Each structure stands twice: as structure tokens, then as C-alpha cells.
Amino acid sequence: MSKVELAPLRAWNDFCPGWERFAKPDTSDLAKWNNRVVSNLLYYQTNYLLLAVIVFLIVGFQNPMGMFTAAAVVSAVFLGSVWAGENRAVINHFKRQNPTAFVVVVMVASYFLISMLGSVMVFMTAITLPLALICAHASFRLRNVKNKLENKMEGAGLKRSPMGILLEALGQQEEGLQKIHTLWRER
């Protein structure tokens, strides 16, 4: 097993170039769209982390107790779901068969627990806003040659990154993408 490496911070003109490097995803080919998102998540992971930290800090300074509560609940739900996915056969099977649904269930469970503790707006702002920005960028940003090469290295196991480990824990690894592609073509 190779060591975990943080991807380099991509230059601003690579991360957010002119409008010509952005395009609406092809919603009729979900496998291709999912592949674009996963590829961009892996390639721009450090930029996304920086974006999330900036939003997280801004909201955290405005409401520190709500931020602590929201972060603790989301962390506990995520770690619990990963543990359950590894140790419970039924959940592991569901995670492998429906990786996107598994992520949605984790997010909805986090939301309901946070709403019971009264920190919904903090959650919506500090966690959902960066996730929405990241998902939008990853969906609309076209891949380039560097992006494709880096992702092939990641997929071949030549290096592992925090985003690669996170995507693998959520069931979004390459074999899951191939299964989605096969199921979509059979329709």
C-alpha cells in the first residue's frame, strides 16, 4: 500500500479559467457525468478543501457553538456510516449496490440530527454551501489532460490521496462507476 499524498494546490487559472472550460453536464449519460465529477474531485481536491475551510471558518467565527455542534454530528454520522458499511453485511451490500443513495442517506441523517439540536442554519451554510459549490464546479468543469493523467495514476494505485480514500469509503471507486455505466447502458 502506498502512502497518502495530498494533491498539489492547482493554480487559479486552472481551477477557475474562462467560461470555455465549463460546460453543462450530459444528464442523459449519468456514468459520464459521474466520471467527470469524481475526476474533478480527485484532481482539484486541495482547492476544494481550501474553499470549504474558508467558508467553514467564516461561518465558524459567526456562530462557534452551532458550528461545533454541526461538525460533531456530521463527523459522528459519517464515521458511524463507514463503520456500519464495513461491519454490517446488509449495509455493506446496500453501499456497494447504491453508492449515491448511501451518500444521500448519510447526508439526510446528518441533517435530521442537526435539526433536532437546533443548528440547521449553521449546517446549511457551513457544510452545504461548500458542498454545493464543490459539486457545481466538479459537475460543470471540463477535464483536461493533466486531470485525466492524475486520475489514472490514482486509479492505478501509484499514489493515494485523501479524496481518493474518502470516495472509496463512500463507495465511489472506479468499479462502482463501471457498474453504473453498465446498468445505464442496459436501460
TrEMBL record:
Its main location: membrane. GO terms for biological process: negative regulation of transport. It is found in: Cell membrane; Cytoplasm, Cytoskeleton; Endoplasmic reticulum membrane; Membrane. Keywords: Acetylation, Cell membrane, Cytoplasm, Cytoskeleton, Endoplasmic reticulum, Membrane, Transmembrane, Transmembrane helix. GO terms for cellular component: cytoskeleton; endoplasmic reticulum membrane; plasma membrane. The chain crosses the membrane at residues 41-61, 67-85, 97-114, 120-140. It is a multi-pass membrane protein. It comes from the Eukaryota. Belongs to the PRA1 family. This is PRA1 family protein.
